[in-house]
Structures
1.
Amino acid sequence: MTTLTRISEAEVRQLVTDWFVKLDVHAPVEEMLPLLAPENLEMQLPEVTLHGLDEFRSWYDGVIHIFFDEVHTMQSLDINTASQQAEVQLVVRWEASRWNAPAANSERLAFDAAQRWVIKRSPDTQNLVISTYIVDALTPLEGFPNL
């Protein structure tokens, strides 16, 4: 049996940063998947709950074709590490543009997204992975449209 290394706060911060940078640049799904738990992944998003990497892959392919010029800016980040997992509460400001055909122009969106994550260490790679990702609230900023 493999002994997993204790999870550090610095590692968690790096994973959170990497996740949002990759979302901003619409990284290929092959770069996103290693950040997610290969087993028992659950993602509760405003529009859908995803289970597993295949459902994430389909969802991601859809959203990168809807939203563009994305920027994620961390507003708050609280990390609670235990030996084998970390619990994260964060608020990220998400700004993006979208175009709904046949509109003449795109529209800019801006939200504060309150989220809770559970992060574990992969027994296969020893890298940190997101196993639970819950969006508790998606609050539009004043003057911006809702989803």
2.
Amino acid sequence: MKIATLVVDDEPIARHAVLRLLREDPDIALLGECGDGASAARAIREQSPDLVFLDIQMPAMTGLDVVETIGVSRMPATVFVTAYEQYAVRAFEANAVDYLVKPFGRGRFLETLRRAKTRLGAARVSAEGGEAIQQVLDALRRREGYLDRVPVRVDERVTFVDVDDIVWIKANRNVVEIHLADRVHEVRETMTSLAGRLDPRHFARVHRSAIINVRRVQSIHPWFNGHHVVTMDTGQKLRMSRYQQEAFMRLVSAKG
């Protein structure tokens, strides 16, 4: 009996990559594809797939919202497709939930598909699988308390800076300097404390005294002794420690 499968991803290239690999498997019966969470929820309800490849980061209605809309106990076997950094991957692994981290290769995809088939064959999806998905959902929701805005003092008043407008952050003794495209604000907070409240999918520590907004990176060039220079979209050049390079490059590649 073939496995009825649905693919959900708002990025057409990523969606078609999954579809192409699934078409090579004679055990898979493709039900279709969805480019947003709302249509995915409808398709899951109406078509009752056995297996769904579900992107987490989608606008308006995320993959996690789809799970909550359908209900964990009624979700089919699910492979989460994600660009989340390590903390989410640890949550998936701890609860034995199948996942793919973008960008993924053919070998990783086939291994994930093999595990999904094994679980379906063992008929344990609705009980153990549902409980595992709920635990992952809880873990990811707990990490959504990241800052959208940072309060800064301007003269005698407090104003707010959108985190998307931050280019980079510099540690300076007992304060941090928040560098925007056209100005700098000082905030009385330690670098470690502020880093813990910024979304690690978008901000990376490239040096002991520097955090950058990954979305504002223009280019990365090798320097010497294993170091690199990161050029921001404002033209600012920052040195990246060789100890931070691997994690940073993994984060940047996930955005691609």
3.
Amino acid sequence: MDLGFKGSVAVVTAASKGLGAAIAEELAREGANLVLCSRDQISISVLADRLSKQYGVKTLGLAADVSLVRDIDMLIDHTMSEFGRVDALLCNAGGPKGGSFLSMTDEDWEKAFQTNLMSTVRLIRGFYPHLKVTGGKIVTIASSSVKIPIPGLVLSNTFRAGVAGLMKTLASELGPSGILLNTVSPGRILTDRVVEIDEARAQREGKSLVQVQQEVIQEIPLGRYGQPKELAVFAAFLLSKQNTYVTGSTFFIDGGMVKAL
């Protein structure tokens, strides 16, 4: 299926690795020109250069911390000055630190709030006038914790749920502008972040990483961790011109792990 990305412009945040990088590559494969950002200028420049050469698309790699207002403003300004339009926005950010409620300081809560919730608010608000022109699509990356909280991840459980609530609300508010918004919630997709979570659980429970991963696999009907590309192809559809009627939904890419209705 041709997703209709040729000639379009997609913005992907936290794109240097993991799910962000996988989605960026899928969009490039479909022909989208890309604006990519990461806190690491070298990593994001390397990725942008590779995708441009491999898929023949235009790319712009920028160093930006999405928890900072000035960096989001810079991202928007550079996108419009370089390309003059935006058709798709993928809001992504690194997960907050793990730990229990009583272990978190005010500074921990504030950092997670700015990085994982306010970044989405500011990105959508800032790109809204431009997305309205193109009838653009927005996808946020959350977590299976929006349905079932994950032990030891109180910050993620709180703010990922907030993002899902925001997206559901905006589907109603921005729908008349022709903008479609959805949330993609990964289960156990094999990224560095998921390995870190498993390692923290292994340390907490006095087990090996292999033991923990085998226990996790027992909870997944498909019997394995997912691959980033398996999520990326679905996110690409939601961001594409082929998506004309799906909005306000939260999708679990989890191999059947989440048992709740």
4.
Amino acid sequence: MTHRKLGKKTLALVAGGLMLMSAVASAAPTELTLEESIALALRNNPTMKIAEADRDKYSWAVREAQAGQGPTLSYSHKDARAKAAPSTLVPNPSPVNDFDNTVSLSLPIYSGGRVDGAIGKAEYDFKAADLGLAKTKQQLKLDVTNAYFKMLQTRNLLQVKQESVDNLTAHLRNVQAQYEVGTVAKSDVLRSEVELANAQQSLITAQNDFDLAMASLNNVVGLPLDTEIKLKEEMKYEQSKLTLADGINFAMQYRPDVLQADYALKGAQETVKVARSGFLPTVTLSGANNWTDSKFPGSKNRNWSVYLTTSLTLFDTNLTLSKVKEAEAGVVKANEQYRQTKDSVSLEVRQAYLSMKESEKRIETSQVAVAKADEDFKIAQVRYNAGVGTNLDVIDAELALAQAKTNYIQALYDYNTSKAKLDKAMGVAVKQ
């Protein structure tokens, strides 16, 4: 290969690489609100597809059970060839062909409650599966909300760490300037440099936490993990007027877990009805049309029949009784699970509510602390510049300010996530 060709190829590769880098650099970040993030997750997250498929499965199970009370139409065709044994009258009989066609219709009149019970249970199972879809939506909303606020929290903490680095950098320049004119000792410079290095280490950690939070949000909403996201919202405090009693009452009426447990209990009761049908008779109406002939397809000779069949099991070695007792034990279990679910939901609501209220109080106190710490830092800077304060005063004041801001951000994060947990614990429906 000539040097000219090699040079052209290298130039083309470089140009292509620059274009790719330019395209990547110019790609605008994806801007998302919390509601947009939730909508993305509802469309993309595999758990939604699984819950929807589960609901469809139980929908068809209802139709399957309902088919048990409808008529059944069947058709059969038989081709036969037979030869009778020789007899005195017919010493050498010839083979005989028989072509038979039968159309039969069967309609259950009474099943002893078996079909009705099966339909009832299937319908309750479907309702429970439908609630399972709602439950999946609520859990997914909580996951997205936690991930969204986690990214907001790490972004705000990153800003606090950056402010600390900026403040300590400016303070170090001031200390160095005073050291050069001989007004402060070398130890002040060294201590300021150490504090700045520590702040820079914290800034690196905060940046990594932010990147991880962004990847987590991408994962839950179904975007590529390296997608750059820009959040449109800020963490804010909106006071909730909900009382604990109202929250628990709402959960008892609308929480999917409670309603699912109720349907499971009702389904278990239908299972008892199915089991007890073994003690009762069944009545079936049937009819048939039959055509038979010695020539294919066998449609010459026609006869028909209609009959009503009543059957009752007189003895089955306690098989039916065993099924009934098994089903009744299932009712006892389902009833206790229903009671247990209500207690668990009530506890979950209480925990989320009290956590929200505790975070609410911390927001109020940390807001005051931030304002006072900011004023204290400014005073420490002025005193140090005037020569009446120490380097340690400035560093301590800056650390106190950073901690106060961190406490405030943490309180806001805890409040918003506790509020989201409370919505999920209560069973607040997800808008879609």
